[in-house]
Amino acid sequence: MKLSLGKYLLPTYVALTFAFLAIPIIYTFVFSFNDSIKSNIIWRGFTLDNWLDVCNQQEVCDAFGNSVIVAVSATVVATILGTMIAIALVRYRFRFRSATNLLLFLPLATPEVVMGAGLAAQFLDFGWQKGLPTVIIAHTMFTLSFVVVTVKARVATLDPALEEAGRDLYANAAQVFWRITFPLLLPGILAAAMLAFALSFDDFIITQFNSGAVDTFPKFVYTAAARGIPAEANVIGSFVFLVAIAIVLVVQIRSSRKQKKLITK
Amino acid sequence: MSADFVAGGQDLELESIRKEFPGFVAVDDLDLKIPAGEFFALLGPSGCGKTTTLRMIAGLETPSAGRILIGGNDVTDQKPHQRPVNTVFQNYALFPHMSVEENVAFGLKQRKVDNPQQRAQAALEMVELQHLAARRPQQLSGGQQQRVALARALVNRPALLLLDEPLGALDLKLRRQMQIELKAIQMEVGLTFLHVTHDQEEAMDMADTVAVMNHGHIEQMGAPEALYDRPKTAFVARFLGQSNIFVGEVAEADDAKLAINFKGNRLAAPAARVQKTKGKVAIGVRPEKTSFHPEKPASDPAVNILGRGTITDIRFTGVSNQYQIEIPEVGEITVFAQNVGKSPVVELGAEVWVSWKVEHSFGLADLPTGEEEVAE
Fold it and tell me: Among A168, A256, B75, B326, which one is least packed by beta carbons within 10 Å?
Protein backbone atom coordinates (compact mmCIF):
# COMPACT_ATOMS: atom_id res chain seq x y z
CA MET A 1 0.00 0.00 0.00
CA LYS A 2 2.63 2.38 1.15
CA LEU A 3 4.83 1.38 -1.75
CA SER A 4 2.15 1.78 -4.44
CA LEU A 5 1.21 5.19 -3.04
CA GLY A 6 4.78 6.37 -3.52
CA LYS A 7 4.84 4.73 -6.91
CA TYR A 8 1.80 6.60 -8.24
CA LEU A 9 1.75 9.77 -6.17
CA LEU A 10 4.91 11.31 -7.59
CA PRO A 11 4.12 10.70 -11.29
CA THR A 12 0.58 12.01 -10.78
CA TYR A 13 1.89 15.09 -9.05
CA VAL A 14 4.42 15.71 -11.83
CA ALA A 15 1.77 15.21 -14.52
CA LEU A 16 -0.57 17.67 -12.81
CA THR A 17 2.21 20.26 -12.48
CA PHE A 18 3.07 20.00 -16.15
CA ALA A 19 -0.60 20.21 -17.10
CA PHE A 20 -0.99 23.31 -14.94
CA LEU A 21 2.02 24.94 -16.63
CA ALA A 22 1.20 23.85 -20.15
CA ILE A 23 -2.59 24.32 -20.41
CA PRO A 24 -2.50 28.10 -21.13
CA ILE A 25 0.19 27.54 -23.77
CA ILE A 26 -1.68 24.64 -25.34
CA TYR A 27 -4.89 26.68 -25.27
CA THR A 28 -3.17 29.58 -27.07
CA PHE A 29 -1.69 27.24 -29.63
CA VAL A 30 -4.90 25.32 -30.31
CA PHE A 31 -7.02 28.47 -30.61
CA SER A 32 -4.58 29.92 -33.13
CA PHE A 33 -6.24 27.42 -35.52
CA ASN A 34 -9.78 28.43 -34.56
CA ASP A 35 -12.04 29.56 -37.35
CA SER A 36 -13.19 32.53 -35.29
CA ILE A 37 -15.21 35.51 -36.47
CA LYS A 38 -14.65 38.29 -33.99
CA SER A 39 -13.91 36.97 -30.52
CA ASN A 40 -11.78 33.89 -30.13
CA ILE A 41 -13.36 32.19 -27.16
CA ILE A 42 -15.61 29.52 -28.61
CA TRP A 43 -14.22 26.76 -30.84
CA ARG A 44 -15.76 27.07 -34.32
CA GLY A 45 -13.66 24.59 -36.26
CA PHE A 46 -10.14 24.13 -37.61
CA THR A 47 -8.55 26.51 -40.12
CA LEU A 48 -5.05 27.50 -41.28
CA ASP A 49 -6.22 30.96 -42.35
CA ASN A 50 -4.96 32.68 -39.21
CA TRP A 51 -1.45 31.29 -39.78
CA LEU A 52 -1.38 31.90 -43.54
CA ASP A 53 -2.69 35.45 -43.33
CA VAL A 54 -1.48 36.81 -40.01
CA CYS A 55 -1.59 40.42 -41.13
CA ASN A 56 -5.28 40.18 -41.93
CA GLN A 57 -5.71 42.09 -38.72
CA GLN A 58 -3.31 44.93 -39.50
CA GLU A 59 -2.97 46.16 -35.88
CA VAL A 60 -1.67 42.77 -34.72
CA CYS A 61 1.17 42.84 -37.22
CA ASP A 62 1.98 46.49 -36.58
CA ALA A 63 2.15 45.87 -32.84
CA PHE A 64 4.33 42.81 -33.38
CA GLY A 65 6.62 44.78 -35.71
CA ASN A 66 6.99 47.53 -33.12
CA SER A 67 7.83 44.99 -30.42
CA VAL A 68 10.52 43.44 -32.62
CA ILE A 69 12.03 46.87 -33.39
CA VAL A 70 12.06 47.82 -29.71
CA ALA A 71 13.40 44.47 -28.51
CA VAL A 72 16.15 44.27 -31.14
CA SER A 73 17.29 47.88 -30.61
CA ALA A 74 17.22 47.66 -26.82
CA THR A 75 18.99 44.28 -26.90
CA VAL A 76 21.79 45.48 -29.17
CA VAL A 77 22.45 48.66 -27.19
CA ALA A 78 22.09 47.02 -23.76
CA THR A 79 24.28 44.05 -24.72
CA ILE A 80 27.13 46.21 -26.04
CA LEU A 81 27.00 48.65 -23.11
CA GLY A 82 26.43 45.88 -20.56
CA THR A 83 29.34 43.77 -21.80
CA MET A 84 31.69 46.74 -21.57
CA ILE A 85 30.47 47.57 -18.07
CA ALA A 86 30.82 43.92 -16.97
CA ILE A 87 34.43 43.72 -18.19
CA ALA A 88 35.29 47.03 -16.53
CA LEU A 89 33.74 45.96 -13.22
CA VAL A 90 35.62 42.65 -13.06
CA ARG A 91 38.97 43.62 -14.59
CA TYR A 92 39.64 47.20 -13.48
CA ARG A 93 39.89 49.02 -10.18
CA PHE A 94 38.42 52.52 -10.31
CA ARG A 95 36.63 55.06 -8.13
CA PHE A 96 33.00 54.24 -7.36
CA ARG A 97 33.48 50.68 -8.62
CA SER A 98 31.67 49.11 -5.67
CA ALA A 99 29.01 51.83 -5.81
CA THR A 100 28.43 51.01 -9.50
CA ASN A 101 28.17 47.34 -8.63
CA LEU A 102 25.50 48.09 -6.05
CA LEU A 103 23.57 50.59 -8.17
CA LEU A 104 23.32 48.08 -11.01
CA PHE A 105 21.09 45.93 -8.83
CA LEU A 106 18.71 48.81 -8.25
CA PRO A 107 16.72 48.41 -11.50
CA LEU A 108 16.37 44.68 -10.70
CA ALA A 109 14.83 45.49 -7.34
CA THR A 110 12.69 48.50 -8.29
CA PRO A 111 9.01 47.74 -9.06
CA GLU A 112 8.33 48.27 -12.74
CA VAL A 113 5.47 50.65 -11.98
CA VAL A 114 7.86 52.96 -10.16
CA MET A 115 10.49 52.79 -12.89
CA GLY A 116 7.92 53.24 -15.66
CA ALA A 117 6.30 56.25 -13.97
CA GLY A 118 9.68 57.76 -13.14
CA LEU A 119 10.84 57.51 -16.72
CA ALA A 120 7.56 58.93 -18.01
CA ALA A 121 8.00 61.97 -15.74
CA GLN A 122 11.56 62.35 -16.97
CA PHE A 123 10.56 62.31 -20.63
CA LEU A 124 7.84 64.84 -19.85
CA ASP A 125 10.45 67.06 -18.18
CA PHE A 126 12.66 66.85 -21.25
CA GLY A 127 9.66 67.61 -23.40
CA TRP A 128 10.16 64.47 -25.45
CA GLN A 129 7.31 63.11 -27.51
CA LYS A 130 6.45 59.59 -26.36
CA GLY A 131 6.88 56.95 -29.05
CA LEU A 132 9.21 54.19 -30.17
CA PRO A 133 12.44 56.05 -29.20
CA THR A 134 11.30 56.59 -25.62
CA VAL A 135 10.28 52.92 -25.34
CA ILE A 136 13.68 51.83 -26.68
CA ILE A 137 15.48 54.06 -24.17
CA ALA A 138 13.34 52.73 -21.33
CA HIS A 139 13.89 49.10 -22.34
CA THR A 140 17.64 49.58 -22.79
CA MET A 141 17.76 50.98 -19.28
CA PHE A 142 15.97 48.17 -17.51
CA THR A 143 17.57 45.30 -19.47
CA LEU A 144 21.09 46.71 -19.00
CA SER A 145 21.36 45.44 -15.42
CA PHE A 146 20.41 41.92 -16.46
CA VAL A 147 23.08 41.96 -19.17
CA VAL A 148 25.77 43.20 -16.79
CA VAL A 149 24.95 40.57 -14.15
CA THR A 150 24.94 37.74 -16.73
CA VAL A 151 28.14 38.75 -18.55
CA LYS A 152 29.95 39.54 -15.28
CA ALA A 153 29.58 35.93 -14.18
CA ARG A 154 31.31 34.85 -17.39
CA VAL A 155 34.11 37.43 -17.14
CA ALA A 156 34.82 36.33 -13.58
CA THR A 157 35.59 32.78 -14.75
CA LEU A 158 37.89 33.97 -17.54
CA ASP A 159 41.54 33.44 -16.57
CA PRO A 160 43.40 36.78 -17.01
CA ALA A 161 46.48 34.73 -17.97
CA LEU A 162 44.79 33.91 -21.31
CA GLU A 163 44.68 37.58 -22.25
CA GLU A 164 48.24 38.01 -21.01
CA ALA A 165 49.30 35.09 -23.20
CA GLY A 166 47.69 36.87 -26.14
CA ARG A 167 49.61 40.06 -25.40
CA ASP A 168 52.78 38.02 -25.03
CA LEU A 169 52.11 36.43 -28.44
CA TYR A 170 52.22 39.75 -30.31
CA ALA A 171 48.53 40.73 -30.14
CA ASN A 172 47.71 44.36 -29.34
CA ALA A 173 44.84 45.34 -27.06
CA ALA A 174 42.17 45.25 -29.80
CA GLN A 175 43.41 41.95 -31.22
CA VAL A 176 43.46 40.39 -27.75
CA PHE A 177 39.86 41.46 -27.26
CA TRP A 178 38.53 40.17 -30.58
CA ARG A 179 40.59 36.95 -30.79
CA ILE A 180 40.62 35.87 -27.15
CA THR A 181 38.36 37.78 -24.78
CA PHE A 182 35.31 38.08 -27.04
CA PRO A 183 35.13 34.47 -28.31
CA LEU A 184 35.52 33.20 -24.75
CA LEU A 185 32.81 35.55 -23.43
CA LEU A 186 30.47 34.87 -26.36
CA PRO A 187 28.29 32.21 -24.68
CA GLY A 188 27.66 34.61 -21.79
CA ILE A 189 27.02 37.54 -24.13
CA LEU A 190 24.53 35.49 -26.18
CA ALA A 191 22.71 34.34 -23.06
CA ALA A 192 22.52 37.95 -21.87
CA ALA A 193 21.21 39.12 -25.26
CA MET A 194 18.51 36.44 -25.30
CA LEU A 195 17.45 37.37 -21.80
CA ALA A 196 17.33 41.07 -22.71
CA PHE A 197 15.30 40.32 -25.84
CA ALA A 198 12.79 38.20 -23.94
CA LEU A 199 12.43 40.78 -21.16
CA SER A 200 11.96 43.62 -23.61
CA PHE A 201 9.62 41.75 -25.94
CA ASP A 202 6.99 40.93 -23.35
CA ASP A 203 7.31 44.01 -21.14
CA PHE A 204 4.00 45.70 -20.54
CA ILE A 205 4.15 48.03 -17.53
CA ILE A 206 7.15 50.19 -18.46
CA THR A 207 5.98 50.26 -22.08
CA GLN A 208 2.51 51.39 -21.08
CA PHE A 209 3.96 54.44 -19.31
CA ASN A 210 6.36 55.47 -22.07
CA SER A 211 4.90 54.53 -25.44
CA GLY A 212 2.17 57.12 -25.94
CA ALA A 213 0.00 56.12 -28.90
CA VAL A 214 2.40 53.44 -30.19
CA ASP A 215 1.22 49.85 -29.71
CA THR A 216 3.58 47.03 -28.86
CA PHE A 217 2.44 43.40 -28.95
CA PRO A 218 1.81 43.01 -25.19
CA LYS A 219 0.02 46.37 -25.15
CA PHE A 220 -2.16 45.35 -28.08
CA VAL A 221 -3.09 42.02 -26.50
CA TYR A 222 -3.97 43.76 -23.24
CA THR A 223 -6.20 46.29 -24.95
CA ALA A 224 -7.76 43.65 -27.17
CA ALA A 225 -8.54 41.40 -24.21
CA ALA A 226 -11.44 43.67 -23.30
CA ARG A 227 -13.24 43.11 -26.60
CA GLY A 228 -11.91 39.68 -27.54
CA ILE A 229 -8.38 38.84 -28.69
CA PRO A 230 -8.14 38.05 -32.41
CA ALA A 231 -6.81 34.63 -33.34
CA GLU A 232 -3.89 36.31 -35.12
CA ALA A 233 -2.54 37.28 -31.69
CA ASN A 234 -2.57 33.58 -30.78
CA VAL A 235 -0.62 32.85 -33.95
CA ILE A 236 2.09 35.35 -33.03
CA GLY A 237 2.21 34.16 -29.42
CA SER A 238 2.56 30.54 -30.57
CA PHE A 239 5.18 31.52 -33.13
CA VAL A 240 7.35 33.29 -30.54
CA PHE A 241 6.98 30.31 -28.22
CA LEU A 242 8.02 27.85 -30.96
CA VAL A 243 11.06 29.95 -31.87
CA ALA A 244 12.14 30.01 -28.22
CA ILE A 245 11.73 26.22 -27.95
CA ALA A 246 13.69 25.73 -31.19
CA ILE A 247 16.59 27.83 -29.87
CA VAL A 248 16.70 25.84 -26.63
CA LEU A 249 16.66 22.55 -28.55
CA VAL A 250 19.44 23.59 -30.93
CA VAL A 251 21.65 24.72 -28.04
CA GLN A 252 20.99 21.50 -26.13
CA ILE A 253 21.75 19.24 -29.10
CA ARG A 254 24.90 21.15 -29.99
CA SER A 255 26.30 21.05 -26.45
CA SER A 256 25.53 17.34 -26.01
CA ARG A 257 27.23 16.62 -29.35
CA LYS A 258 30.26 18.61 -28.25
CA GLN A 259 30.42 16.61 -25.05
CA LYS A 260 30.22 13.31 -26.93
CA LYS A 261 33.00 14.51 -29.20
CA LEU A 262 35.16 15.32 -26.18
CA ILE A 263 34.61 11.86 -24.75
CA THR A 264 35.11 9.80 -27.89
CA LYS A 265 38.14 11.68 -29.22
CA MET B 1 64.11 30.07 -40.57
CA SER B 2 63.39 33.32 -42.38
CA ALA B 3 64.98 36.67 -41.73
CA ASP B 4 62.28 38.05 -39.47
CA PHE B 5 63.20 35.45 -36.90
CA VAL B 6 65.83 36.36 -34.39
CA ALA B 7 69.05 34.58 -35.30
CA GLY B 8 69.56 33.37 -31.74
CA GLY B 9 69.16 34.33 -28.14
CA GLN B 10 70.03 37.82 -26.99
CA ASP B 11 71.32 39.06 -23.69
CA LEU B 12 69.09 40.57 -21.04
CA GLU B 13 70.07 43.41 -18.77
CA LEU B 14 68.13 44.75 -15.80
CA GLU B 15 69.34 48.09 -14.49
CA SER B 16 68.25 48.77 -10.89
CA ILE B 17 64.77 47.59 -11.70
CA ARG B 18 62.22 48.28 -8.99
CA LYS B 19 58.57 47.43 -8.44
CA GLU B 20 56.49 48.85 -5.63
CA PHE B 21 52.99 47.71 -4.84
CA PRO B 22 50.82 49.56 -2.33
CA GLY B 23 52.36 48.74 1.04
CA PHE B 24 55.42 46.77 -0.05
CA VAL B 25 58.39 46.63 -2.38
CA ALA B 26 58.25 43.48 -4.54
CA VAL B 27 61.52 44.02 -6.41
CA ASP B 28 64.17 46.17 -4.76
CA ASP B 29 66.61 47.86 -7.20
CA LEU B 30 67.62 44.65 -8.90
CA ASP B 31 70.62 44.52 -11.23
CA LEU B 32 71.04 41.50 -13.45
CA LYS B 33 72.79 40.57 -16.63
CA ILE B 34 72.09 37.34 -18.48
CA PRO B 35 74.42 36.56 -21.42
CA ALA B 36 72.91 35.46 -24.73
CA GLY B 37 72.18 31.75 -25.04
CA GLU B 38 72.36 31.05 -21.33
CA PHE B 39 69.95 28.96 -19.28
CA PHE B 40 69.41 31.18 -16.26
CA ALA B 41 67.34 30.29 -13.21
CA LEU B 42 65.81 32.77 -10.80
CA LEU B 43 65.28 30.76 -7.63
CA GLY B 44 63.48 31.82 -4.48
CA PRO B 45 60.59 31.18 -2.12
CA SER B 46 57.09 32.39 -3.00
CA GLY B 47 56.75 36.13 -2.54
CA CYS B 48 60.45 36.84 -3.14
CA GLY B 49 59.73 38.93 -6.25
CA LYS B 50 60.89 36.45 -8.89
CA THR B 51 57.57 36.25 -10.73
CA THR B 52 57.15 40.04 -10.61
CA THR B 53 60.62 40.35 -12.16
CA LEU B 54 59.63 37.95 -14.94
CA ARG B 55 56.37 39.80 -15.57
CA MET B 56 58.23 43.10 -15.87
CA ILE B 57 60.56 41.56 -18.46
CA ALA B 58 57.54 40.25 -20.40
CA GLY B 59 55.94 43.70 -20.18
CA LEU B 60 52.91 42.49 -18.20
CA GLU B 61 53.94 44.64 -15.22
CA THR B 62 55.33 48.19 -15.40
CA PRO B 63 58.46 48.81 -13.33
CA SER B 64 58.33 51.66 -10.80
CA ALA B 65 61.92 52.53 -11.72
CA GLY B 66 64.87 51.15 -13.68
CA ARG B 67 65.51 49.96 -17.21
CA ILE B 68 65.15 46.67 -19.09
CA LEU B 69 67.43 46.01 -22.07
CA ILE B 70 67.18 43.08 -24.47
CA GLY B 71 70.08 42.72 -26.88
CA GLY B 72 71.12 46.25 -25.93
CA ASN B 73 67.72 47.78 -26.84
CA ASP B 74 65.75 49.55 -24.14
CA VAL B 75 62.33 47.83 -24.02
CA THR B 76 61.19 49.38 -20.72
CA ASP B 77 58.39 51.39 -22.36
CA GLN B 78 57.42 48.78 -24.95
CA LYS B 79 54.16 46.90 -24.79
CA PRO B 80 54.30 43.11 -24.36
CA HIS B 81 53.45 42.47 -28.03
CA GLN B 82 56.33 44.70 -29.14
CA ARG B 83 59.00 42.77 -27.20
CA PRO B 84 61.02 39.88 -28.67
CA VAL B 85 60.05 37.82 -25.63
CA ASN B 86 57.73 34.84 -25.18
CA THR B 87 56.50 33.25 -22.01
CA VAL B 88 55.56 29.76 -20.88
CA PHE B 89 52.93 30.53 -18.26
CA GLN B 90 52.55 28.76 -14.96
CA ASN B 91 49.25 27.08 -15.84
CA TYR B 92 50.12 27.17 -19.55
CA ALA B 93 47.29 29.62 -20.44
CA LEU B 94 46.45 27.71 -23.63
CA PHE B 95 43.51 29.21 -25.54
CA PRO B 96 40.60 26.81 -24.92
CA HIS B 97 38.67 27.91 -28.03
CA MET B 98 41.49 27.00 -30.42
CA SER B 99 43.02 23.70 -31.48
CA VAL B 100 46.55 22.80 -30.44
CA GLU B 101 47.84 23.86 -33.85
CA GLU B 102 45.95 27.17 -33.76
CA ASN B 103 47.43 27.82 -30.34
CA VAL B 104 50.96 27.24 -31.61
CA ALA B 105 50.36 29.28 -34.78
CA PHE B 106 48.80 32.22 -32.90
CA GLY B 107 52.00 34.26 -32.48
CA LEU B 108 53.09 33.53 -36.06
CA LYS B 109 49.78 34.70 -37.48
CA GLN B 110 49.91 37.85 -35.35
CA ARG B 111 53.26 38.71 -36.85
CA LYS B 112 52.12 37.62 -40.33
CA VAL B 113 54.95 35.13 -40.73
CA ASP B 114 54.84 32.94 -43.88
CA ASN B 115 53.47 29.40 -43.61
CA PRO B 116 52.28 29.55 -40.02
CA GLN B 117 50.73 26.06 -40.22
CA GLN B 118 53.95 24.44 -41.40
CA ARG B 119 55.99 26.15 -38.74
CA ALA B 120 53.46 25.20 -36.07
CA GLN B 121 53.65 21.59 -37.24
CA ALA B 122 57.45 21.68 -37.05
CA ALA B 123 57.29 23.09 -33.51
CA LEU B 124 54.82 20.37 -32.50
CA GLU B 125 57.15 17.76 -33.95
CA MET B 126 59.93 19.09 -31.77
CA VAL B 127 57.82 18.39 -28.67
CA GLU B 128 56.52 15.14 -30.23
CA LEU B 129 52.87 16.17 -30.34
CA GLN B 130 52.29 16.48 -34.10
CA HIS B 131 49.63 13.74 -33.92
CA LEU B 132 47.51 15.84 -31.52
CA ALA B 133 47.48 19.06 -33.57
CA ALA B 134 43.71 18.99 -34.18
CA ARG B 135 42.73 18.50 -30.55
CA ARG B 136 41.57 21.09 -28.07
CA PRO B 137 43.93 21.83 -25.14
CA GLN B 138 41.44 20.54 -22.58
CA GLN B 139 41.63 17.08 -24.22
CA LEU B 140 45.35 16.81 -23.38
CA SER B 141 47.10 15.66 -20.23
CA GLY B 142 49.03 18.11 -18.08
CA GLY B 143 52.37 17.06 -19.54
CA GLN B 144 51.07 17.41 -23.10
CA GLN B 145 49.63 20.86 -22.35
CA GLN B 146 53.02 21.84 -20.97
CA ARG B 147 54.66 20.84 -24.26
CA VAL B 148 52.10 22.76 -26.30
CA ALA B 149 52.78 25.87 -24.20
CA LEU B 150 56.49 25.40 -24.83
CA ALA B 151 55.98 24.92 -28.58
CA ARG B 152 53.68 27.96 -28.73
CA ALA B 153 56.42 30.13 -27.21
CA LEU B 154 59.43 28.59 -28.97
CA VAL B 155 57.94 28.65 -32.47
CA ASN B 156 58.36 32.44 -32.45
CA ARG B 157 62.12 32.12 -31.86
CA PRO B 158 62.10 34.86 -29.23
CA ALA B 159 65.36 36.52 -28.23
CA LEU B 160 64.45 35.53 -24.70
CA LEU B 161 62.18 32.77 -23.44
CA LEU B 162 60.60 33.23 -20.02
CA LEU B 163 59.45 30.19 -18.06
CA ASP B 164 57.23 30.86 -15.05
CA GLU B 165 57.32 27.74 -12.85
CA PRO B 166 56.54 25.72 -15.97
CA LEU B 167 56.91 22.33 -14.33
CA GLY B 168 55.12 23.13 -11.09
CA ALA B 169 51.86 21.42 -12.01
CA LEU B 170 53.45 18.14 -13.12
CA ASP B 171 54.06 15.08 -10.97
CA LEU B 172 57.60 14.30 -9.88
CA LYS B 173 58.46 11.72 -12.52
CA LEU B 174 57.13 13.80 -15.41
CA ARG B 175 58.86 16.85 -13.97
CA ARG B 176 62.27 15.16 -14.01
CA GLN B 177 61.64 13.97 -17.57
CA MET B 178 60.60 17.45 -18.74
CA GLN B 179 63.69 18.94 -17.07
CA ILE B 180 65.89 16.81 -19.28
CA GLU B 181 63.86 17.63 -22.41
CA LEU B 182 63.74 21.34 -21.67
CA LYS B 183 67.50 21.45 -21.23
CA ALA B 184 68.00 19.51 -24.48
CA ILE B 185 65.66 21.86 -26.39
CA GLN B 186 67.45 24.92 -25.02
CA MET B 187 70.82 23.55 -26.17
CA GLU B 188 69.31 22.74 -29.58
CA VAL B 189 67.68 26.13 -30.26
CA GLY B 190 70.38 28.19 -28.53
CA LEU B 191 67.94 30.74 -27.12
CA THR B 192 68.31 32.62 -23.85
CA PHE B 193 66.10 31.00 -21.21
CA LEU B 194 65.03 32.69 -17.99
CA HIS B 195 63.48 30.12 -15.72
CA VAL B 196 61.66 31.18 -12.56
CA THR B 197 61.20 28.47 -9.93
CA HIS B 198 61.06 27.75 -6.21
CA ASP B 199 62.37 24.21 -6.73
CA GLN B 200 66.11 24.28 -6.00
CA GLU B 201 66.72 20.85 -7.51
CA GLU B 202 65.06 21.96 -10.74
CA ALA B 203 67.13 25.15 -10.86
CA MET B 204 70.44 23.42 -10.13
CA ASP B 205 69.71 20.58 -12.54
CA MET B 206 68.99 22.73 -15.60
CA ALA B 207 70.54 26.16 -15.25
CA ASP B 208 74.00 27.36 -16.23
CA THR B 209 73.65 30.13 -13.69
CA VAL B 210 71.34 30.34 -10.69
CA ALA B 211 70.40 33.55 -8.89
CA VAL B 212 68.89 33.04 -5.45
CA MET B 213 66.31 35.72 -4.72
CA ASN B 214 64.92 36.80 -1.36
CA HIS B 215 62.85 39.85 -0.33
CA GLY B 216 63.11 41.49 -3.75
CA HIS B 217 66.87 41.26 -4.22
CA ILE B 218 69.43 38.72 -5.35
CA GLU B 219 71.24 37.13 -2.42
CA GLN B 220 73.80 35.29 -4.50
CA MET B 221 74.38 34.35 -8.10
CA GLY B 222 76.65 31.80 -9.74
CA ALA B 223 77.05 28.33 -11.18
CA PRO B 224 74.97 25.77 -9.26
CA GLU B 225 78.07 23.93 -7.93
CA ALA B 226 79.64 27.17 -6.68
CA LEU B 227 76.43 28.27 -4.98
CA TYR B 228 76.08 24.95 -3.25
CA ASP B 229 79.72 24.66 -2.26
CA ARG B 230 80.23 28.26 -1.11
CA PRO B 231 76.96 29.86 0.00
CA LYS B 232 77.57 33.44 1.08
CA THR B 233 74.49 34.06 3.21
CA ALA B 234 72.53 32.03 5.73
CA PHE B 235 69.48 32.24 3.46
CA VAL B 236 71.32 30.66 0.52
CA ALA B 237 72.93 28.05 2.78
CA ARG B 238 69.50 26.99 3.99
CA PHE B 239 67.40 27.47 0.84
CA LEU B 240 69.80 25.64 -1.46
CA GLY B 241 70.06 22.30 0.33
CA GLN B 242 70.60 21.96 4.06
CA SER B 243 73.33 23.32 6.28
CA ASN B 244 74.62 23.04 9.83
CA ILE B 245 75.45 26.58 10.94
CA PHE B 246 77.42 27.64 14.03
CA VAL B 247 77.89 31.22 15.26
CA GLY B 248 80.80 32.42 17.42
CA GLU B 249 83.35 35.20 17.97
CA VAL B 250 86.42 35.11 15.73
CA ALA B 251 89.24 33.48 17.69
CA GLU B 252 91.98 33.66 15.08
CA ALA B 253 92.21 34.89 11.49
CA ASP B 254 95.21 34.68 9.19
CA ASP B 255 95.91 34.25 5.48
CA ALA B 256 95.19 30.54 5.59
CA LYS B 257 92.17 30.19 7.82
CA LEU B 258 89.64 31.68 10.16
CA ALA B 259 88.56 30.05 13.41
CA ILE B 260 85.70 30.89 15.74
CA ASN B 261 85.19 29.99 19.34
CA PHE B 262 81.92 28.11 19.42
CA LYS B 263 80.85 27.22 22.98
CA GLY B 264 84.44 26.34 23.85
CA ASN B 265 85.03 24.43 20.61
CA ARG B 266 87.36 25.72 17.94
CA LEU B 267 85.73 25.59 14.49
CA ALA B 268 87.83 26.61 11.49
CA ALA B 269 87.24 27.40 7.81
CA PRO B 270 89.73 28.14 4.98
CA ALA B 271 90.30 31.90 4.53
CA ALA B 272 89.33 31.61 0.86
CA ARG B 273 85.88 30.33 1.84
CA VAL B 274 84.87 33.01 4.35
CA GLN B 275 83.08 36.30 3.67
CA LYS B 276 83.72 38.08 6.98
CA THR B 277 86.67 38.03 9.41
CA LYS B 278 85.65 40.22 12.35
CA GLY B 279 83.23 40.01 15.26
CA LYS B 280 80.60 37.30 15.27
CA VAL B 281 80.90 34.95 12.31
CA ALA B 282 78.67 32.07 11.18
CA ILE B 283 80.46 28.95 9.96
CA GLY B 284 78.57 26.22 8.19
CA VAL B 285 78.96 22.77 6.69
CA ARG B 286 76.77 20.59 4.50
CA PRO B 287 75.30 17.48 6.19
CA GLU B 288 76.85 15.10 3.63
CA LYS B 289 80.33 16.50 4.39
CA THR B 290 79.79 15.74 8.06
CA SER B 291 80.39 12.34 9.61
CA PHE B 292 80.08 10.78 13.05
CA HIS B 293 82.21 8.32 15.04
CA PRO B 294 81.64 6.08 18.07
CA GLU B 295 85.03 7.14 19.54
CA LYS B 296 86.35 10.68 19.86
CA PRO B 297 88.58 11.31 16.79
CA ALA B 298 92.21 12.29 17.40
CA SER B 299 92.74 16.03 17.56
CA ASP B 300 93.74 17.40 14.12
CA PRO B 301 94.00 21.06 13.00
CA ALA B 302 92.54 20.05 9.61
CA VAL B 303 89.37 18.64 11.22
CA ASN B 304 86.55 20.29 13.17
CA ILE B 305 85.22 18.09 15.98
CA LEU B 306 82.07 18.45 18.11
CA GLY B 307 80.80 16.06 20.73
CA ARG B 308 79.75 14.06 22.51
CA GLY B 309 76.12 13.82 21.35
CA THR B 310 73.28 11.37 20.99
CA ILE B 311 71.50 10.15 17.86
CA THR B 312 67.90 11.33 18.27
CA ASP B 313 66.44 10.52 14.87
CA ILE B 314 67.32 8.34 11.89
CA ARG B 315 65.57 8.71 8.56
CA PHE B 316 66.05 6.34 5.64
CA THR B 317 65.58 8.35 2.46
CA GLY B 318 66.82 5.69 0.03
CA VAL B 319 70.23 6.65 -1.31
CA SER B 320 71.29 8.14 1.99
CA ASN B 321 70.41 8.05 5.67
CA GLN B 322 69.76 11.23 7.57
CA TYR B 323 70.83 11.35 11.21
CA GLN B 324 69.90 13.97 13.78
CA ILE B 325 72.53 14.26 16.50
CA GLU B 326 71.80 16.23 19.63
CA ILE B 327 74.90 17.58 21.38
CA PRO B 328 74.41 19.16 24.83
CA GLU B 329 75.19 22.91 24.82
CA VAL B 330 75.64 22.82 21.02
CA GLY B 331 72.27 21.83 19.63
CA GLU B 332 71.14 19.61 16.79
CA ILE B 333 73.36 18.63 13.86
CA THR B 334 72.23 16.89 10.69
CA VAL B 335 74.46 14.25 9.07
CA PHE B 336 73.85 12.45 5.77
CA ALA B 337 75.57 9.13 5.24
CA GLN B 338 75.51 7.31 1.90
CA ASN B 339 73.51 4.13 2.16
CA VAL B 340 76.36 1.82 1.12
CA GLY B 341 75.67 -0.84 3.71
CA LYS B 342 78.42 0.01 6.21
CA SER B 343 77.01 2.83 8.31
CA PRO B 344 79.02 2.90 11.52
CA VAL B 345 76.37 3.13 14.23
CA VAL B 346 72.68 3.06 13.55
CA GLU B 347 70.78 2.66 16.82
CA LEU B 348 68.86 5.56 18.24
CA GLY B 349 70.43 6.88 21.44
CA ALA B 350 73.97 5.87 20.48
CA GLU B 351 76.68 8.27 21.72
CA VAL B 352 78.81 9.75 18.95
CA TRP B 353 81.26 12.51 17.99
CA VAL B 354 80.71 14.66 14.90
CA SER B 355 83.54 15.82 12.64
CA TRP B 356 84.21 17.38 9.26
CA LYS B 357 87.23 18.57 7.34
CA VAL B 358 88.12 22.24 7.76
CA GLU B 359 88.31 22.57 3.97
CA HIS B 360 84.56 21.82 3.76
CA SER B 361 83.57 24.66 6.12
CA PHE B 362 82.23 27.90 4.72
CA GLY B 363 81.97 31.28 6.44
CA LEU B 364 78.88 33.42 5.84
CA ALA B 365 78.64 37.18 5.33
CA ASP B 366 75.65 37.45 7.65
CA LEU B 367 74.26 35.70 10.70
CA PRO B 368 71.24 33.42 10.61
CA THR B 369 68.02 35.18 11.60
CA GLY B 370 65.62 33.89 14.22
CA GLU B 371 63.28 32.19 11.80
CA GLU B 372 65.87 29.56 10.98
CA GLU B 373 66.68 26.93 13.54
CA VAL B 374 70.36 27.22 14.27
CA ALA B 375 72.84 25.99 16.79
CA GLU B 376 74.14 29.06 18.55
Answer: A256
